[in-house]
Amino acid sequence: MSSRITARTRALAAILAILALVTGAAFTSGAAYADTAPASGVPETVSTDVLPTAQIDGIVWSTAIVGTTVYAGGSFSYARPAGAAAGSNQQRRYNLMAFSLTTGQMTSFAPNVNGTINSVSASPDGTRLYIGGTFTQVNGQARNRVAAFSIPGGTLVSGFAPSVNSTVEAVRATNSTVYIGGNFTAVGGTTRTRVAALSASNGAVTSFNARAEGGRVLALAISPTADKVVVGGHFTTLNGSNNPGLGMGALNASTGASMTWRVNSIIRQGGDNAAIYSLQSDSSGVYGTAYIFPFGGQTLEGAFRADWANGDLVWMEACAGDSYDAAPSANVVYVAGHPHDCSSMGAFADQDPRVYQRGMAWSKAQTGTVRSGIWSGRPAPTLLNWWPDFNTGTVSGASQGPWSVAASGNYVVYAGEFTRVNNVGQQGLVRFATDTIAPNDDGPRVTGANFAPTLSSPAAGQVRVNWTANYDRDNEFLTYEVQRDGVTVNTQTAGSRIWYQRPALTYLDTGVSSGSHSYRVRVTDPFGNVVTGNAVSISVTGGTGGGGGGGGTTGTASDNFNRTVSGGWGSATAGGAWTPSSSTSSYYSVNGTTGRLTLPAARTAESYLTGVTSSSANVTASVSVGAVPAGGSVFASVIGRRAGTADYRARVVIASGGAVTLQLQRSGTTLTSANTGLTAAANTPLQVRLQVTGASPTTIRAKVWRAGTTEPTAWTVTTTDSTSGLQTAGHTGLGGYVGSGVTNGPAVIAFDDFALTAP
């Protein structure tokens, strides 16, 4: 757990070695979801494909994206093209370089800066590039720790040469004013304590006068209206007060006077061993990261978002493991650091040996709360399914990978001291892009014998196929095909996440002929990347011949949910184990009487009985909600035929206020719907019957009535459909979705008295 400050300072090198070994608190595991092909309502990330990007031979501390050019500053001597091995095809670069955001190729921008650059920033109009650090000369001219270039030409601005008496750690600018933070006490002979404002026209110190004492300033952010500056760092007081202060505070952009910053009453992060490490901003708020050594107390190691008005906390992610930078994009916030325990967020717990996720993505919106630990109950975002793999570098001695991240349009740029990304040689800089630009080649990761099924024969003519879900760095939901003797006999979709959330999957193949049979599993991501595991053989006796796969043309199942389960639904009364669609195990539970889905707004979760298939299904179930939704609708689905990722279902829609609509859907498309005249009440079940019969066309019909009353004779909704791919047998399931407008979540959707029979 190391800061860039200790990494840059020889005097604290011994501390770095200690910090790299510090452990955090361990909790229990869980998950959440999203990716480049996410579920409905979940923000889409960039791909994890490593795009060709210029490289450096040292470390990059900071980047700034201006239009389609990326400027990178740090401590390095040479740059080289993507794909070039270390020491080959080099071009001289003195701690500062630029490359194209869209191609990754170096530009000719090559000023000579004689010391480390800690911060790179641009003016909003894109005509100036500012750098801050430890340097004292640029292109042979005196520039004491801060300098400016005209861009895109790259000419050193002659009239901007303020002299700062110690290290500059952060630079941010408007078109008229340049704000700097660091460890200095004077600028041009004028006393300024670790934070100052300079005229962009001539570098003169302005009347802005604030004092950050007890530790250096590491980070700055300017409000969209340029009337407020937020500062972060190690300092313990700001303008003589520790609130704002103790690592963070807001200042009047003209005078430096302290302003209200309410998140300071929650996140208290100053001192020698803790800091607000970075601050980034956009029109929707301030995004910060933090670190602490040793871990403990009311201090943060993750990222947070605060609003601009008064600094109210919008959300925090409370993973253990320092965070060094955060970059907001349209709907996603990308974080650079070394998180190793996100169990407080319902994700991975600490491992032994420790596993670090050095690049992660979170929803920009607040979607829930921190689930455990010292921040339990605080507002939180959703952890998204985006898992690039960075190795650790050796330049700083701090055992870190990326230190900085920036986002613009369709691209995200990570920078630091890593030398490999996704096991591809790529030093110091890397680009990622959305699926419309990326090749989308990063597919399922587990191969060969590690992706082979285990087989058993529980009865004559049956084979139980069990396997562990594969995983994909940027797609959570993968499609699995079970192949018997080279022919696909079952298709199902399931969610998984890197190493920590790989559920056990199963399929019961019935009607298998006597003799030896070979099984293997084939997995495909949403972009067509395929992995086929090794084949395994089994000898079957007493089969009926021919084989139908999955139980022939009809099947039965039932579930009264008379059990208690957390993190899933367990096994049905008849029909085998329930298979969840979401890897967020906390969405699922059974409380002794009902199977429950507990979902925040804009979240979907479903569960399937994949071991039972039917071509003529009569499905009944009762559904209820824990509270009548406010602000939006809650949806409860009964699935009659699911083949692959397509399905026919009846969906009960409970609107804000309780009005009930019944829909028939095909794979998310509403085929027909009707107002039922019913009004839902909290914890009051509605009974649903769905029938899916025939093929080409398939007849789908459903009815709903209040549980405990007489079932109506007439069907509420009915239709036919002949969509290819659904004119076959399929399995059943139950599911729920909570609309994005629901304000009284999380919503509880409960199911009981489930049964699948022949019509």
Structural features:
3 domains, single chain, 62 strands, 7-stranded antiparallel sheet, Immunoglobulin-like, Methylamine Dehydrogenase, Chain H, 759 residues, elongated, Jelly Rolls, mainly beta
Individual helix count: 2
Q: Structural class from helices and strands?
A: mainly beta
Mean pLDDT: 91
- Strand tally, please? 62
Q: Mind telling me which CATH architecture of the largest domain this is?
A: 7 Propeller
Any idea how many domains?
3
Largest sheet: 9 strands, antiparallel
At the first level of CATH, what is the class of the largest domain? Mainly Beta
Strand content: 35-45%
CATH superfamily of the largest domain: YVTN repeat-like/Quinoprotein amine dehydrogenase
Shape: elongated
**Amino- and carboxy-terminal Cα gap:** 62 Å
Percent range of helical residues: under 10%
Which radius of gyration do the C-alpha atoms yield? Answer: 29 Å
Low-confidence stretches: 8-34, 544-554
CATH topology of the largest domain: Methylamine Dehydrogenase, Chain H
